[in-house]
Design goal:
The chain has four helices and 60 strands. Strands 13, 16, 17, 18, 19, 21 and 22 form a seven-stranded mixed sheet that branches. Strand 2 and strand 3 form a beta hairpin. The protein is elongated and about 160 Å long. The longest helix has 24 residues. Helices cover 5% and strands 47% of the residues. By secondary structure, it is mostly beta strands.
Length: 732
């Protein structure tokens, strides 16, 4: 009896233990992962790692909305997304592979909205949705939890969407260990199972069947006994077996890794004929590689079209190139091509003419026709190397003048020419700056420059001072004599102690104003608050502005040698003779301090250059240079005559009567024995036919003012030329 009771007791205990064991074996204990953003943890490169889990963080926005700002840490609020004052139509997604081997039960996010908009939290693991939940709440921290379903392993992600800025303070994930798998098989093989050595493992498309459930993530892999991950480089050839483990079960997946054995062009390029100078174009060409896993017996072999090959030559082709070598994975093949020379049909230069300064250079550039001509060898030549030289198109100015620079092609002897004019460098003694150049600033900051211009008075900010308050410290220079516009003048400093003030200062040399043209040497500097010349070291006269009034006659005397050769204004000396008293003779090169008579019908102002050389013979000239003093009618045994036009009398030389003759004018100083009394008539220097205004067949009535060409007064006209009231009249 006792034994039966004892047996029943043990039976009951066994049943209880069995029941407890069964109950315990079905229990799956949940674990929790949580992290609160309580320290300066920033999202970098769209990811953040906390408590061992790496979360990828992405944001999206609706059309037309600003980009949602990536979260930044705040001690008060946590990770912030968006602007505190703006509304955003977007979302943020957190994803991680940390829970791949677990079943996620719930996701809780502690959120603070910056307003009262409704927010929605959704979560999924692998291909399984864990749940979705929406909530409208004010600006207080709120936990939003999704847990309607249990995950089934794989990558975990959750997304929070809201139309305003918000903060995330903490994330909590509840998960359990995945249940043991009883059956595991490959449902779908990877899309790619053949690889070239050096490529990376790609498990895209790979799906496991675990107890009827699709699994595309959360598994582990080994190959050859070593762990391998998706994206790993496959560095050796051969047939490979990958062991895939999931839920305590394993399956295998075979792949082939092949090495390139050879390559071939299976489709030629679109273009196979070229001109010399072209480059090979691989467009349309298909290169196919033969690969093998390399086992001695039954290797896996296949072909594939490849890119990333190189070819040689990869630059300009020449006629000798009959093929192009293609290289891939150290293997080579060739592609036949044809290269043809291109003949030169013409050549041109970038300029038909150009001007360069002495010692300066300019490069002429060539253009061939056609542009892809094969032989572009040329020779360069200057027809006057004393003016300009040329080397490989670089032209150098040697001396002032003109030279033709010609280029000739080796192929076809085609030519092109550029006319090169060489001028002296501006600002030099040979080619001085103009006043306009200085005004434009071309001389500014330069030392020892030369400038050409007329002395037009003292410089003044309003207008050149030509008389009255003159000084010797400076003068104004202009491109034209008589200039009055200050904007067309520059100031020139005459330094104290240089001697230039005495020689060239307007106060001491007033006769120079609007007459003398000079070349000065000095430094381009600011003077009188404008562009000017300071530190003047030399002043050299180069010309004078000589003026003849509308009367057609004037006297002149310069302290410089003047050259009237080829000028409209003509110069004459006066010589005494015993018949008519005075004879006028034209001269060109007039010595310094020599008085002359100037003639220009109708008058003119003309620039007469100063020269340095032999003068014309002026022996016997009875003109005397004025001294700026009064001239008397007689001077001892000489009589003096000055150019004058008394009222109702012709212009001519009349006896002096105490008039002042300026320093740059002249008067006739003739022996008292000359047959002249009060008047020396001016000859007509133009042709006689045009100088005679009237012809008479007999003598007119007496009573007119009648003179002969010697200036003697007549009682009546005589045969020949008579001057009557200033008119020339011929009497036959």
């Amino acid at each position: 009896m006792k034994q039966k009771l004892l047996n029943k007791l043990w039976l009951r205990v066994g049943m209880i233990v069995a029941i407890m064991t069964t109950a315990l074996s079905g229990t799956v204990w949940a674990e929790t992962w949580t992290h609160a953003f309580a320290s300066p943890e920033a999202i970098s490169n769209n990811s953040i790692t906390v408590d061992g889990a790496t979360w990828n963080v992405t944001t999206t926005t609706g059309a037309g909305s600003p980009t949602m700002t990536t979260g930044t840490y705040s001690k008060t609020y946590g990770l912030k997304f968006g602007s505190s004052k703006s509304i955003y139509y977007g979302s943020v997604t957190f994803s991680t592979d940390y829970f791949n081997s677990y079943n996620v039960q719930s996701v809780t996010v502690n959120i603070l909205n910056n307003g009262s908009k409704e927010g929605t939290l959704t979560a999924q693991q692998g291909n399984t949705s864990i749940g979705s939940k929406s909530s409208t709440f004010g600006t207080t921290w709120t936990n939003l939890t999704v847990n309607t379903n249990s995950g089934s392993g794989g990558s975990l992600s959750f997304t929070y969407s809201v139309e305003q800025a918000f903060y995330i303070h903490s994330i909590t994930v509840t998960y359990t260990a995945a249940a043991a798998v009883t059956s595991l098989s490959v449902k779908t093989a990877p899309t790619k199972v053949r690889y070239e050595v050096g490529e990376t493992l790609d498990m895209t498309g790979f799906v496991l069947d675990a107890d009827g459930m699709d699994v595309s993530s959360g598994y582990t892999m080994t190959m050859g006994g070593a762990a391998i991950a998706n994206g790993a480089t496959l560095s050796s050839a051969g047939k490979k077996t990958i062991t895939v483990a999931y839920g305590g079960k394993e399956v295998t997946q075979n792949i082939s890794v092949g090495a390139v054995q050879s390559i071939a062009v299976t489709t030629p390029p679109t273009k196979t004929s070229y001109d010399t100078g072209d480059s090979f174009v691989p467009t349309g060409m298909v290169v196919t590689a033969n690969l093998s896993t390399g086992e001695p017996s039954d290797p896996d072999t296949w072909t594939k079209d490849v890119t990333g090959y190189t070819f040689s030559p990869d630059g300009a082709l020449v006629a000798e190139n009959t093929s192009v070598t293609i290289t891939y994975a150290t293997k080579t093949t060739t592609q036949a091509i044809t290269v043809t020379d291109v003949a030169v049909t013409g050549v041109s230069l970038n300029k038909a003419s150009t001007t360069i300064e002495k010692t300066k250079t300019e490069t002429l550039t060539l253009t061939f026709t056609p542009s892809n001509a094969t032989n572009k060898n040329v020779t360069w030549e200057s027809d006057d190397t004393s003016v300009a030289t040329v080397d490989a198109g670089v032209v150098t100015g040697v001396a002032a003048g003109t030279a033709n620079i010609t280029v000739t092609t080796e192929d076809g002897s085609k030519t092109a020419t550029c006319v090169v004019t060489v001028v002296n460098q501006k600002g030099t003694a040979e080619t001085p700056y103009s006043v306009a150049d200085v005004i434009k600033g071309e001389a500014s900051g330069k030392e020892d420059v030369y400038v050409l211009g007329y002395i037009v008075g003292n410089y003044d900010s309003k207008a050149p001072i030509k008389s009255g308050s003159l000084v010797d410290t400076n003068f104004a220079l202009a491109d034209e004599a008589g200039e009055t516009d200050v904007k067309k003048t520059i100031p020139v400093e005459l330094s104290k102690g240089s001697g230039l003030r005495t020689s060239w200062g307007p106060l001491s040399n007033a006769d120079n104003i609007d007459v003398v043209k000079v070349v000065i040497k000095g430094n381009g500097e600011t003077y009188f608050s404008t562009n000017g010349i300071k530190g003047t070291s030399s002043v050299t006269k180069v010309a004078e502005a000589v003026k003849v009034t509308s009367a057609g006659y004037a006297t002149y005397a310069s302290d410089s040698k003047l050259d009237f050769t080829g000028k409209e204004i003509k110069a004459y000396i006066a010589e005494q003779n015993g018949t008519t008293g005075v004879t006028f003779t034209q001269v060109n090169k007039v010595p310094a301090n020599t008085g002359v008579l100037l003639y220009k019908d109708g008058g003119a102002t003309e620039e007469i250059p100063v020269y340095d050389g032999a003068a014309d013979d002026v022996t016997g000239n009875v003109f005397v240079k004025g001294e700026g003093a009064a001239v008397t009618s007689e001077d001892g045994s000489y009589k003096n005559y000055i150019l004058n036009k008394p009222s109702e009398k012709p212009i001519g030389f009349y006896k002096a009567a105490g008039q002042t003759v300026a320093k740059n004018r002249a008067y006739i100083h003739i022996d008292a024995s000359a047959p002249i009394k009060e008047f020396i008539a001016l000859p007509g220097f133009e042709d006689d036919a045009t100088s005679i205004e009237e012809t008479l067949s007999d003598s007119p009535v007496n009573g007119e003012n009648i003179y002969n060409l010697a200036g003697q007064r007549l009682n009546k006209m005589q045969k020949g030329i008579n001057i009557v009231n200033g008119k020339k009249i011929m009497v036959k």
